[in-house]
Amino acid sequence: MKYQDILDACSLSAADTTGGTLCVTTPVDGSEIAQVPTHSVADAEAAIATGVQAFNAWRKVPAPRRGELVRLLGEELRREKENLGRLVSLECGKIYQEGLGEVQEMIDICDFAVGLSRQLYGLTIASERPGHSMRETWHPIGVCGIITAFNFPAAPWCWNAALALVCGDPVIAKPSEKTPLTQLAIQKICERAMATFGEDAPEGLIQTLIGERDLGEVLTASRDVALISATGSVPMGKAVAADMSKRLGKTILELGGNNAMIVAPSADLEMAVRAIVFSAVGTAGQRCTSLRRLIVHADIYDQLIPRLIKVYAGLSIGSPLADGTLVGPLIDAGALTAMEQALEQAKAEGGTVYGGGRALTDQYPDAAYVAPAIVEMPEQSAIVHTETFAPILYVVKYTDLDAAIAMQNAVPQGLSSCIFSTDLRETEHFLSAQGSDCGIANVNIGPSGAEIGGAFGGEKETGGGRESGSDAWRAYMRRQTSTVNYSRALPLAQGISFEI
Amino acid sequence: MKYQDILDACSLSAADTTGGTLCVTTPVDGSEIAQVPTHSVADAEAAIATGVQAFNAWRKVPAPRRGELVRLLGEELRREKENLGRLVSLECGKIYQEGLGEVQEMIDICDFAVGLSRQLYGLTIASERPGHSMRETWHPIGVCGIITAFNFPAAPWCWNAALALVCGDPVIAKPSEKTPLTQLAIQKICERAMATFGEDAPEGLIQTLIGERDLGEVLTASRDVALISATGSVPMGKAVAADMSKRLGKTILELGGNNAMIVAPSADLEMAVRAIVFSAVGTAGQRCTSLRRLIVHADIYDQLIPRLIKVYAGLSIGSPLADGTLVGPLIDAGALTAMEQALEQAKAEGGTVYGGGRALTDQYPDAAYVAPAIVEMPEQSAIVHTETFAPILYVVKYTDLDAAIAMQNAVPQGLSSCIFSTDLRETEHFLSAQGSDCGIANVNIGPSGAEIGGAFGGEKETGGGRESGSDAWRAYMRRQTSTVNYSRALPLAQGISFEI
Amino acid sequence: MKYQDILDACSLSAADTTGGTLCVTTPVDGSEIAQVPTHSVADAEAAIATGVQAFNAWRKVPAPRRGELVRLLGEELRREKENLGRLVSLECGKIYQEGLGEVQEMIDICDFAVGLSRQLYGLTIASERPGHSMRETWHPIGVCGIITAFNFPAAPWCWNAALALVCGDPVIAKPSEKTPLTQLAIQKICERAMATFGEDAPEGLIQTLIGERDLGEVLTASRDVALISATGSVPMGKAVAADMSKRLGKTILELGGNNAMIVAPSADLEMAVRAIVFSAVGTAGQRCTSLRRLIVHADIYDQLIPRLIKVYAGLSIGSPLADGTLVGPLIDAGALTAMEQALEQAKAEGGTVYGGGRALTDQYPDAAYVAPAIVEMPEQSAIVHTETFAPILYVVKYTDLDAAIAMQNAVPQGLSSCIFSTDLRETEHFLSAQGSDCGIANVNIGPSGAEIGGAFGGEKETGGGRESGSDAWRAYMRRQTSTVNYSRALPLAQGISFEI
Amino acid sequence: MKYQDILDACSLSAADTTGGTLCVTTPVDGSEIAQVPTHSVADAEAAIATGVQAFNAWRKVPAPRRGELVRLLGEELRREKENLGRLVSLECGKIYQEGLGEVQEMIDICDFAVGLSRQLYGLTIASERPGHSMRETWHPIGVCGIITAFNFPAAPWCWNAALALVCGDPVIAKPSEKTPLTQLAIQKICERAMATFGEDAPEGLIQTLIGERDLGEVLTASRDVALISATGSVPMGKAVAADMSKRLGKTILELGGNNAMIVAPSADLEMAVRAIVFSAVGTAGQRCTSLRRLIVHADIYDQLIPRLIKVYAGLSIGSPLADGTLVGPLIDAGALTAMEQALEQAKAEGGTVYGGGRALTDQYPDAAYVAPAIVEMPEQSAIVHTETFAPILYVVKYTDLDAAIAMQNAVPQGLSSCIFSTDLRETEHFLSAQGSDCGIANVNIGPSGAEIGGAFGGEKETGGGRESGSDAWRAYMRRQTSTVNYSRALPLAQGISFEI
């Protein structure tokens, strides 16, 4: 399929993809696929103003009716799954299967949000005063800014938007400048859903801003943006947090991860191998939940590591659009350099590197294909504590589970973690208060945070935000605690007496 | 009762109250009642280190057992209610009844926390994969710093500490430098409870740091303090938020309020008068939930305002320790100056001031007693948008409810709000998504956030934190989303296929 | 549209509607529209056996995947809304608008159930023992029998089935022998959804049994039917409960209602009139939530009642399939007789009857059209305490709200209730522990239990069951409380010591 | 300690324990310890009438205030723990440690209920109609009858009463005629708590009826008893259910259990032995959660069973009041006969019996001491499917886990179950939808349902009720679903159009 056909299938027009100043290259071969027009700071301010208008209308629309819009969005996404999945693959370089997976997550979260639209549960609470009733209710908060990253150009927007829309909030997307096309395609899908939905959807309910960091800064600076949900690096997240601290705005931060797997002696090693490879080389190691550290019990180390090295050597590297490819390219040359530097540092810290070299340079001289690397480390040294957005898997050995958990917890990030073990005592300990300190802790699967029914997000420098399932929807609403006195008396709480 | 007797009754020894560099004066008459030794920055760092040790032990203690410590704390507080209530009154100047009320809140939150100690509910969640189970669990987070303010020297510490302790977290208190004695007395009560509880309570579980802002900064700077819960002014909160953004630490911010009441034509005016006076002059207008703005319907304005002015004129101002006093002193001369300046500005903006002058200057020349002020304003001008920590009640008129709500929402803070009306359509509208934008919205009671069973806190510049009841306990824990694969297969989520 | 066309549009074949022993007549004109083949007791037993097989397979299918079947069912229902709505109208005689409303409820509950399929939340619970974790999980229970009534031949099946299916339970429907066609049409819709869904849906997952009461008795007698959800009269419900008590099986009982509205002086009378008329004459007074009693404050009685009598006189009575009809026929001659007897008794007890006569006898001699009746009663006498399934509205007067509430609560049933008042004190009192004793208590709307997001059902002789929204899904699952000891010690609870 | 001293310590007076017609013998030695006056049917009816009066007052008392009474009750129980524990031991024959354990559960549930008293959470729910709000609230239901059994004369009353009282319901206890004294002692404790509490506690709030089954029948027959919570045998439960089906009253049934443990090859056998012995011989096998069936994997059978037989042989049998006793007496001669008959039948079905003979006949000729029995069975035959209330442990062998689970699930009761295994795959499978069908499913502990924070109760013939923790409190309240229309329009749900 030609690249232009992929764009066309997503209804991207010449106006969307030509004549602009933002050059989009595909990591597949490094060629330019679009010159996207960008928004100015003034455009961003206008978008916020329109968003505020939309908020005033949208919050009046009953939640189940808002859910109907999200249901229609899900229907559109079902129809466009292959088209959008292919665009994701083209633009960010993940394999087509994973592109489809992103769209499926969008569909799933829409279904989930539709169900929520008849819940959004608050509480009624027993009051200590006669003739009083107490309630806790959740209300829409206002315009939500959604800042997303190149490696997941589709699903995280939808995790946020599907919930925000059901919760009564307009959304303004600011995608990565590396992957604007996917967001533009999503915006078109949304517009079709809104057209079907009809006039209850106000103008400005769903907007997209294309451009650089300065647009994000307009969002973080404005008191009219009630919430910033930002996915990206830790430094980006700290910058957002600092900006928001000036106006005490709300944030959902989904930042880096330096995710480990502990492999215990009782593990099913064949399952572990599959999980390790998918987690470490999937999306070319550019997921926030990519597996970066492998903490292996000494007793099985010599069984597992050689097997892994062998599997790594046989992985099919190639175009993410081609059938059978498991490892696509890195996003760009910068990512390649970072990987090379990390491997150098690892060697300097005593590591033994397997794989890790550049690949397919003949076929794709302008792209950044690499062979995924396994690095045996003598200990969990500085580079192992560092998140490098590339397919590098550091391996260390352990003998005591608590020491392994301490290693797992020693990094500044706290996104995801896992253990392979069939020993209940080990697995429950890993999941306990004394176990993993991450937001996600899995057993006998990799560190993915996958199903949309659970809350996704992490602790420590990962930023503390939660998205997707469970009660993540609450972040898009404000909590109101109300006491209604329907009696003819005015008792004070705590039995205080105050007579005028 | 002599001041020294009040200190003695709270087991404060000479070592606690003499020889230090922190001079504590009582607002009752401005006299010095203690010279409290302070902690150094090094002391604060040591306290954090001890706290971390305590955390490692305490998180292993089962939650219902942790609840037992809090139950014993509640029992101690029951015994000391009068003593501690009197000290609160002496040190911060609120009337004795309100001092007792603070201690009662401490007792209530202890009871509530004991119940929570067998809950701390997470979720089990339906998984999309066969042979997988999904769970969301809540775990202790670590050392909690509790920064409190002079106007509530007792209850907020306990809202935080009772929950934090049950949740598995050690606490380090940093009280206002204006009111260290109450916190010292609480610390002693805690130590008695811990002694009764026995050795499961590790050293350093409950600590107090006495001193200035630099101690707070040690807490905000340290990665070993997982959570800062800070009560105080908006500028203080912004400073804490900025510090915490550097390390992406967790915060609970309980900052200022500029709380309004709307009085509708159908209101029970006698009840409204009582509520207004208690809310506006209680604690000499120095509560975060003090009533500061009165938005009165034109049809009843002339019934209500003269009645209020008359009641104000008859309020008994005097020593907070004396029976019958309704209005005690401001905390200090600075507060007095701020009040005088605010009234000047109000006049300049067209306001008519009733009351507001200094009081009891003969009897208490070194104290800051004032007559509470009512100020009729032509509109909600700049000074009305400003929180002045003093008993000033600005009054404005309205004719349309939506306009009144817009006025109510126009200030930067979002703590508390209320309406007096018996018209269901008005009251439910006020509580709806289009109504009050505050964290607390009451009907036919003042803007107090009183009962501990509900979550306390506010939106916008009030900081967004929630304390006390409902699920406020979650802020003291970390959320863990876990998927356990107990099958012999490794299906990927979203139906992704990835074969090695 | 010809009757046969309505049947054809719902894919009912000659095999479904001819040659059987169950004669179905339409209340529209009393003509026979089908002779439906019935199932034998042996068929019913076989159906249960197949259901058990289906259960063993279906409970292994992950809940979100089960939700996908319900989503597809919802899609089919969207497509068939008009067709099925018309069949409902034809078969049970409610107006076409209400027939559509039933199908819309089916669609809504499907959407809601899809969302639930990623929730089905249990709890994780703090344990008092170190190294122990405690969980509460919800599991499928088994085959569910769904017994429905003629007046709602469609929606209640779906309230039950959508939840049961998502919860992992096969369903066996036993519709009223008066309205089998609607259920047969639904069965066909389900089969299409299952075909689209694919092989994960086992044979026997969704079944229908056509016949008389003996088939229901097979269901209640069998230990292999885990739950009976039965909608119908109080005597039917008591019979089911007695049968189930022999084997301690689970039930959801949705029985009769004798629903009242209190109209207070502050009510918006125009709104009240609309609500009263729709609630009292809709479905010709044959809803379980029909308004049967009107308790009117003396001060507005003379305003309201004459206005109502006038509106009643102008109601368009006619074929439920015709545009503009508001009042269709009673289900059959038996219903007519019951209505006539009730009106006789009402007169004997001092009532004054307006309307209530038979209508359209020329046009439809074999049908049971009536003019809805208003009956002014001197007090709430015996007949007013009786539920007559017909459009009779008894009116009584009150002066004191608590007395009105006492009247409202005096009947044996406890389904629904409402108040028209704009006085907050009255409305909240009505909703309080001292107010209505019904499962549904509304303010400023009629006694309908309408939205599917809330739980539907009633207290006292209404049977106590809950269906549809909130956590009604739990009735279709079993609760499991689990404690996992992952330590190497065996502490007993409550500190018991027992050394061997 | 003399028996009379035990009675005296519990404040039982001569009026309580002499001159009545109900002879109470202690199972310790079979001697008569009291002749308790009984209540008549007329007394029971009067008690219900007083209870209704109490309900009308108590439901008005705010729930947190009701919680204060329960807190005071907990304080009284703390004081009386040893006294009451000893009476329990004397009257029902369980060892003193277990008697203390019962009282500790009472204390724990009181603490838990106090916490609940500020929760009793309902929901606020998103409505599909503009200007409407939807709520689900929980209200008191009325008088609760609590029927308890001889084997737990104390704790189950308190599980029910603590929750019922907090929920707003008066309670009437009907203890077993074998153990009235414990309930009389509890009644006295309650009266002290109520006296401390003051006048908010109405007369008749907590009542006790002493007598035979006819008193229970007064409770089940009366419409004024909203809920019957009954603990006892399956036949008793079916009788209660049949009675209640006549008036569609609410029940909580806690009936028999036939609880199994599966011991897998990976089990920690030393822990298993301790758990088995405590579970099977504790309370002389007369707990509803007693371990009755042991399903042991063939690979470890020969390790485990001889070890068990040896431990059994060494168990100290003796007076439950004596230090060091592990096995006290059966309740009476009837229980002894039932045990002997069961062992005969087991032999007839191919079983090999170890132990099981009568013990201490010289020392206590009038008591029913037995040596606990282990019975190796060739298969799970008829007697193994039968619950015999005595210390008989049937042992069967398994090789396939699913077959073991099928055996575990094959009995009609569904109370409790457990597995000893350290293999995560086995343990999670056991806890899954395809695992145990019991209300309680434990891992690496016995089948006790112990901690009060979880819900206690079982499936199938165990009756389906839940008591104690989680949301068991809801059974003591009625659910109210309310929609409030605060708009000036009257939209119908499901978009129905109905114009008059």
TrEMBL record, chains A, B, C, D:
UniProt similarity note: Belongs to the aldehyde dehydrogenase family.
Pfam families referenced in this protein's UniProt entry, alphabetically: Aldedh (PF00171)
Domain Aldehyde dehydrogenase: 20-481
Keyword Nucleus attached: no
Subunit note: Homotetramer.
InterPro entries membership: Ald_DH/histidinol_DH, Ald_DH_C, Ald_DH_CS_GLU, Ald_DH_N, Aldehyde_DH_dom, ALDH7A1-like
PROSITE patterns hit by this protein: ALDEHYDE_DEHYDR_GLU
List of catalytic residues: 254
PANTHER family referenced in this protein's UniProt entry, alphabetically: ALPHA-AMINOADIPIC SEMIALDEHYDE DEHYDROGENASE
EC number: 1.2.1.3
Keywords on record: NAD, Oxidoreductase
Organism this protein belongs to: Thioclava dalianensis
Protein name according to UniProt: aldehyde dehydrogenase (NAD(+))
GO MF annotation terms: aldehyde dehydrogenase (NAD+) activity
